[in-house]
Design goal:
Distance between the termini: 77 Å
Shape: globular
Order of helices and strands: HHHHHHHEHHHHHHHHHHHEHEEEEH
Number of helices: 20
Mean pLDDT: 85
Structural class: mainly alpha
CATH architecture of the largest domain: Up-down Bundle
Radius of gyration: 25 Å
Length: 488
């Protein structure tokens, strides 16, 4: 196939996938399923007839896609929302993944006749969840979840991939090198999680500092800068023995909860990039599958999938959330929102590349589990949420100006603030002032010029800021500008 033909096919597949998202919303089917099906239909055994059987290329694309998807997920994570559920989410993302993997491993030894390590490998591959598809489906039905359910599921799904990846890589290594001791996994796990956490936190702060200080001549280069920094964070952390996936997720979270130049435009850019990565990943994984190989193992795979949905996942959720006193209905909802996405299919390429004896069977079983999970859990989640009484109307997302009014600001408090001579803020960028989220600089007047404020504007004495704010945030701004306010 010529380069021109490859580009044309890629463009058509991308366009069809984007348009299929509208069909997904109408039918109540997660879009990832349609992306996968488009890939399968385009593949060698579908009408498209496009042959693709390269697990290495699929894994390479999958890893790169996961890096940007996790980073985007971190950017969208509001610390104030997840703080109340932090420990619950961490426990589910670590111990919950491990319990699910162990239960699935035990069942695989019975149903498939696997060795214990082969069973644990299969269990590790399907142990992580993908809540992003769930929330996309709920949004299409104008439904949300009550209380702390949404932030808990977002935190768990955003942070449980590193644990599943570590377990998958570890058991793949144990099977490929039988001489390795299983006890070596404990220090390796501690190293990856601790180093990944520290690296992610420091990298997030470093990204904010770099973006605010580098002062690029062209605004269009800022998204390119973030792309390079994200890839560097993953590459350096993974090369030094840490979890690169955990590092990029935490870096995104740290960055998203701080102020930086072009924040809104960069958030939109990475959201779009994450969607592009998801589509490309699902299409590629769909191409990698041969449907004829799924039919012989469909009965056994269905049995394993049912076990995962009604026993393994609920076991981990109910056991680990028991000390927190969460109502049974909410725990049932968390257990049911165990949707499997593309990550298990990517992880299933690990044993393929290691040439393990059961690699092809594991890959086909995993693909079948993902399809079953999406069809059964994905389509039923809105009804289950209503049945359990944990659903809530989805509030419309207000724009930035509306958020200022709705966030408890004093009625129509729109004031002018002048940067005084000798101000400590003179010569600093607006972003360096550390303004509160509920304060908005509407316009900046410099002499006779009106400037649209952006974080990189350097303040000068006699600049006049028109700000929308509440009293507390206004006092913080005045303090940062060196303006003395009356006390009492």
């Amino acid at each position: 196939m010529s380069i021109e033909s490859m580009l044309l096919v890629g463009a058509i597949l991308l366009l069809v996938s984007i348009l299929s998202s509208k069909l997904s919303a109408r039918l109540g089917i997660p879009s990832l399923l349609l992306f996968l099906l488009i890939g399968v239909l385009t593949g060698s055994e579908g009408p498209g007839g496009l042959y693709f059987d390269d697990p290495f290329q699929a894994q390479l694309l999958g890893v790169a896609a996961l890096v940007f998807i996790l980073f985007s997920g971190g950017l969208d994570t509001d610390w104030s929302n997840i703080q109340p559920v932090l420990w619950k989410g961490i426990i589910l993302a670590t111990a919950g993944v491990a319990i699910t993997a162990i239960a699935m491993g035990w069942f695989a030894t019975i149903v498939l006749g696997f060795s214990i390590n082969e069973g644990l490998l299969l269990g590790s591959i399907v142990s992580s969840t993908d809540a992003a598809a769930v929330f996309a489906l709920l949004r299409s039905r104008r439904i949300s979840l009550r209380g702390d359910l949404r932030p808990l599921l977002e935190l768990e799904s955003g942070s449980n991939d590193p644990m599943a990846i570590f377990l998958t890589a570890s058991f793949t290594g144990l099977l490929a090198n039988p001489g390795i001791s299983a006890t070596s996994l404990v220090p390796a796990f501690a190293q990856q999680m601790v180093f990944g956490s520290v690296a992610g936190y420091l990298a997030g702060k470093g990204m904010v500092y770099a973006i605010n200080r580098i002062k690029l001549e062209y605004d269009g280069l800022y998204p390119v800068l973030t792309i390079s920094l994200v890839l560097m964070i993953y590459g350096i952390t993974a090369s030094l023995g840490g979890s690169g996936f955990l590092a990029v997720y935490l870096a995104g979270m740290v960055m998203g909860n701080r102020g930086f130049i072009h924040k809104r435009s960069l958030l939109r850019f990475h959201d779009g990039l994450a969607w592009l990565m998801q589509i490309a990943m699902f299409l590629t994984l769909g191409l990698l599958v041969f449907p004829s190989r799924l039919i012989p193992i469909s009965g056994t795979s269905l049995l394993i999938s049912v076990f995962l949905m009604i026993f393994a996942r609920p076991l981990s959720v109910f056991a680990l959330l028991l000390p927190f006193g969460i109502p049974r209905r909410e725990k049932a909802m968390v257990a049911w929102v165990g949707l499997r996405g593309a990550v298990p299919i990517i992880l299933a390429t690990y044993p393929l590349l290691a040439n393990l004896p059961q690699a092809e069977l594991i890959f086909n079983v995993v693909f079948f589990i993902v399809i079953t999970s999406v069809l059964v859990q994905g389509t039923s989640i809105p009804r289950v949420a209503k049945l359990l009484g944990v659903d809530a109307p989805l509030a419309a997302e207000p724009d930035y100006l509306a958020k200022c009014y709705l966030g408890g600001m004093i009625k129509d408090l729109l004031v002018e603030v002048t940067v005084p001579q000798g101000s400590p803020a003179a010569g600093k960028q607006i972003v360096d002032l550390g303004l509160n989220r509920d304060l908005m600089v509407v316009v900046l007047r410099r002499g006779t010029d009106l400037l649209m404020p952006s974080g990189k504007i350097v303040l000068q004495p006699e600049d006049v800021l028109l700000v929308l704010s509440n009293e507390a945030s206004l006092k913080d701004l005045q303090s940062a500008l060196g303006i003395k306010t009356e006390v009492g």
